[in-house]
Each structure stands twice: as C-alpha cells, then as structure tokens.
C-alpha cells in the first residue's frame, strides 16, 4: 500500500513565504494571513508557506480560510492558540477551514502540509452557541485535498462538542506521529459529540501510523463514513460515472488508542463506537453506492478503561461491496473497571468486532486474525453476556489465530455472564473460526434469530470451527435457524459447564463433529446436548472424538441418539 504526497507538484508553483523573523510569539496569524491573497486563478496557483522559527504561542482571532497549497511548520514548543472574542469571529463551524474553492467558486484540489505544531484553545476563547446551546464544531476541517501530510501535530480538546480533524473527500493522506486528545462527558444532550479523526465521503490512499489517540465520552476516535456529504464541494470531474463512493487503500497501523480515564473503577458513560467503517442509507439526496476495499487495521494497541458499545463497527446497507477488510495483530486490553445495570447505563454490552450487514445484497468479506484480548473488566448484565468478541450479521468472516484471556473468579462462573466469542442475530452468514486460543468464555457462540419473520431471519448459517483451544464455556447455543451446516473438527474443549458442544440445532442442515478432544471440569451432569425435538439435521457425522469426565450414562444417551439417526462408524472414546 502506497500513499503519494506530491512534493513534485509543490515545487512547480509560485511560493509566498512568511517566516518567523517577520513576527514573533504573540502574533495574530489571522491578521498576517489576511494580507495574502489566498486564491487560485486561471494563470496562477499560490503555495503559501508559514514557518514559525521561534518557540511560543501564536494566535487565531477568527475563522481562517485557506484555498491554496499551504504549508505551516513550527519548531519545538510552537503553539497555535484559538482565541475568538465573540460569535462574530466565526465564519464557519470550524476554526481552520481548508477549502477547495476560491472566491470565484473555482474548484481546486489543494496540497497541505502541517508539521511540528501544537494546537490549543485559549481559556478566554468564546465558544459559539446556537439557540443558547454549545454549537457542534471542528477544530480543523479539510475539503477534498489532493494530498495531505500531517506530522508531529498535537491537539487536546476538552469539555465541548468539537472534533479534532474532519476530512472530506480526500486522497494521498499521511497522518503520522500525532497526539490527538478529545475529552468530554455525556452530561447533557449537547455534549455527546466530538471525535479525534473523521473521514467522510470518498477517501483513498491513506496512512495513519504511529499516532496516539486519547478520548473520554461518546463518538468515534477514528471514523470513515458517509456518501459525498455535499456534492457542491466535489469537483465535477470527480463524481464517479458508476455512482460508487469508494473508500480504499487505507492503512491504520502502530497507533495507540486509549479510551476512558486510567484507574476508572466504575463505568461512567458508554461510547457508541471507537472505530467505524459505515455507509449511509440511500435517499433522494444520496444516490451513491459504496465500495470498501483494501483496508488494513494492523498492530494497534487499545487500552479500554470504560464502557464502549462497539470497538470496531462496520455497518453496510443496500448493495455495498466490501473486499479485503482486515483487522490483524491488534492488542486489546479491557482494564479493571466495573459496570452494572442502572438508569444511566441502559445497555450494558461491549462488542469488540461488530459487522452489521443490513441487506441480503451486501457482498461483505472480513478477516480478523492474530489479535489478542485481555479482559479484567466486570460487566454484569442481567439478561445477556457483557462482552462479545464478534457480532456478525450477514457477510463472510474468517476469524483465526486470535487469543482471548478472561480474568474471572471460578467461584462466580455460573453467575458471571461475561464473554461470548461470537454471536449471530439475523441474516444468512458464513463464519470460520480457526486456530484461536480462548480462555474464560461463558459461551463459545450463539446463533439465534432475533427476527423471526421477513427476509432478515437466519435462513442459513455455515459454520467451520477447526483447531481451536477453548476453555470455559465451550458450547454453541442455536435457536430459530433455518439451515445450519456446522463442521467442527480437531478442537480441544475444556468445559466448565454442563453443555459441551451444541445446544439445539437448526431446522435442517448437516453436522460434522470429528477428531475433537473434550475435558469436563464441571461437577454436575455434563452432556453433549442435542435437543431431539426440533433437531432437523439431515446428516450427522460424529466420529473419533475423545471425552474425559463425561459420565457413562450421559455418553450412552449421546450415542443412542446418534445411532437413532442412522450414523455409523462413530468410534468415540470415553476416558474417566
């Protein structure tokens, strides 16, 4: 994957430079920039460079518009401080606006460099209001860059509904070695928005590497979403003839994402999601399809200190196409916090990966491999497990070589409904789980239609579980499924409850359960558990399995039931 920053283009255009010896710390950058004709004409294209050579604070006193190729570079301890005196200082919903059109309405695609600068807000700054409430803002908003290079930039925002960076319809983007912090709580309806880094519309050729993201409160740290949010900002030659809004060639690697306050003991708010890759529903104003392809989220570290409903959220509708979307070798740590049901926490569920495909026409393929999850949080939900590794509805996912460790008190195991590895709620789905090492689960999986009529029920589920090591709850709960085809081979199951494999089944389908080794650590009556009523599998293959700790009478029941289904050559071994 390559991202091109077009320095060759910058070298060919006219330069206008402001350097630090023209002014010192305390200067009003808005004033100096207003002296420059920041525009594009048919005969001339400006490249404006600002180099801050002296450490100190420089100020913006009103919304800054830039519509040319632009470089701003600071030195160590250089800060740009926003300090607007009143509502009249705002000309947009942001502090700095990189536009793609000039005063004559001409469309341009600008190149931007921002390096070695800390951005802040003055304590005396006037926050814009609307109808007496804090207005939703962006610190920097960038439209349609031809290339964008942001390195060693720091920005900390607190207490207001504001996002750090909002980028719309761009390409050739590199964001590196930055620290983006966004802190707000959910104490009022107007204070529930604000993210660290957002991308909207068509986004291609992006690298986000070696950054630190910190956040408290709702909204994404990193989000890719939306159609062309405003066609008027998109050059006419960029509107695709096939009507597809593409997001592709995106690398997110070696970043640290920290959510919530370190040392939190009781969850205070719950975030909707930290990372999103979502399209938008079609309506009369948004007629484009979506295509996501070649997106890699690799070797990032997550530190979770508070409730997050979804860590990774991919939602797709209509005829969206998803190809080569991968989450690989990420390290995810849920630290020591406790959350229990209350009015302030109406939902009490955390989903690490949620792939929600809302229509049968979605062509979606995902890969989740090599990730590690360590959980010390206690999420007590009265009605359902508190944490899912994967919630998948529709599409196809391969989940392989992941490691999950759950810190849990064995004495509380039956009361503590903690983690389910995978869950399917609706839509026909294909899932492969292979060579994962999972310890401390409540259930291995749940396949249960939450929708029982219409075209979104689970009419078919194809499941391959092979080569996994599973300790804790090893069973898969099945309910309201049309056709279930399950191939379960070569797994090591160490079961701490009474159900060691499948609970119930589908109305039809095939089951292959071969070469598995199960050890029972439960003191009660452990059973393989098929529900004879409603078990409509047309073919069973149950062979060459080893069971340790299953009572002879229970094993006899299993074998007698299988024999009644005319399955031969079982060759299973019972070890006391």
Q: Describe the sheet with the most strands.
A: 44 strands, parallel
Share of helical residues: under 10%
Unreliable stretches, pLDDT < 50, 5 or more residues?
Answer: 1-14, 411-416
Through-space gap between termini: 55 Å
Structural class: mainly beta
How many individual helices? 3
Defining key terms:
576 residues; mainly beta; 44-stranded parallel sheet; two-stranded antiparallel sheet; 50 strands; elongated; disordered N terminus
Overall description:
With 576 residues, the protein is mainly beta. The protein is built from three helices and 50 strands. The protein has a 44-stranded parallel sheet that branches. Strands 9-10 form a two-stranded antiparallel sheet. Helix 3 links the parallel strand 49 and strand 50. The longest helix is centred in the C-terminal third of the chain and has 13 residues. It is elongated. The protein starts with 6 loop residues before the first helix and ends with a strand. The N terminus is likely disordered.
């Amino acid at each position: 994957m390559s991202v091109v920053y077009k320095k060759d283009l910058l070298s060919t255009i006219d330069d206008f430079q402001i350097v630090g010896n023209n002014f010192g710390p305390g200067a009003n950058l808005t004033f100096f920039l207003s002296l420059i004709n920041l525009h594009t004409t048919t005969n001339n294209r400006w490249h404006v460079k600002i180099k801050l050579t002296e450490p100190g604070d420089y100020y913006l006193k009103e919304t800054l518009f830039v519509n040319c190729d632009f470089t701003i570079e600071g030195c160590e301890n250089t800060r740009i401080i926003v300090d607007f005196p009143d509502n009249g200082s705002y000309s947009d919903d942001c502090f700095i606006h990189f536009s793609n059109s000039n005063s004559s309405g001409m469309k341009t695609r600008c190149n931007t460099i921002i390096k070695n600068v800390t951005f802040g807000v003055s304590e005396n700054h006037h926050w814009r209001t609307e109808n007496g409430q804090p207005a939703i803002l962006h610190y920097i908003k960038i439209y349609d860059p031809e290339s964008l290079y942001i390195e060693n930039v720091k920005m900390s925002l607190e207490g207001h509904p504001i996002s750090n960076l909002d980028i719309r319809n761009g390409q050739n983007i590199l964001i590196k070695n930055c620290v983006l912090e966004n802190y707000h709580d959910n104490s009022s309806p107007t204070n529930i928005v604000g993210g660290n880094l957002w991308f909207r519309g068509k986004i291609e050729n992006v690298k986000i590497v070696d950054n630190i993201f910190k956040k408290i409160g709702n909204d994404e740290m990193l989000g890719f979403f939306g159609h062309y949010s405003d066609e008027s900002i998109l050059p006419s030659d960029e509107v695709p003839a096939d009507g597809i809004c593409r997001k592709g060639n995106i690398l997110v690697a070696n970043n640290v994402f920290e959510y919530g306050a370190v040392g939190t003991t009781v969850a205070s708010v719950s975030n909707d999601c930290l990372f999103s890759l979502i399209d938008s529903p079609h309506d009369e104003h948004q007629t484009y399809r979506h295509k996501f392809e070649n997106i890699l989220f690799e070797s990032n570290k997550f530190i979770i200190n508070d409730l997050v409903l979804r860590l990774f959220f991919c939602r797709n509708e209509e005829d969206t196409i998803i190809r080569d979307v991968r989450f690989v070798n990420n390290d995810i740590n849920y630290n020591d916090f406790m959350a229990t049901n209350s009015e302030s926490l109406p939902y009490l569920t955390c989903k690490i990966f949620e792939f929600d495909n809302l229509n049968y026409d979605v062509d979606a393929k995902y890969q989740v491999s090599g990730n590690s999850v360590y959980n010390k949080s206690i999420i007590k939900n009265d009605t359902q497990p508190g944490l899912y590794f994967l919630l998948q509805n529709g599409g196809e996912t391969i989940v392989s070589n992941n490691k999950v460790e759950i810190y849990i008190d064995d004495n509380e195991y039956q009361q503590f409904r903690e983690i389910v590895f995978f869950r399917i709620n609706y839509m026909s789905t294909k899932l492969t789980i292979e060579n994962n090492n999972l310890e401390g689960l409540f259930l291995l999986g749940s396949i249960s239609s939450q929708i029982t009529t219409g075209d979104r029920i689970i009419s078919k589920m194809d499941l391959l579980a092979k080569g996994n090591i599973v300790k804790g709850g090893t069973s898969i709960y099945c309910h309201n499924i049309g056709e279930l085809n399950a191939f379960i081979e070569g797994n090591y199951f160490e079961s701490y409850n009474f159900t060691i494999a499948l609970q119930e089944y589908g109305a039809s389908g095939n089951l292959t359960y071969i070469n598995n080794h199960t050890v029972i650590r439960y003191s009660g009556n452990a059973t393989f558990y098929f529900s004879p009523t409603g078990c409509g599998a047309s073919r069973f293959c149950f062979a060459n399995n080893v069971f340790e700790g299953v009572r002879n009478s229970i094993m006899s029941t299993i074998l007698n039931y299988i024999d009644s289904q005319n399955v031969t050559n079982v060759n299973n071994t019972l070890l006391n």
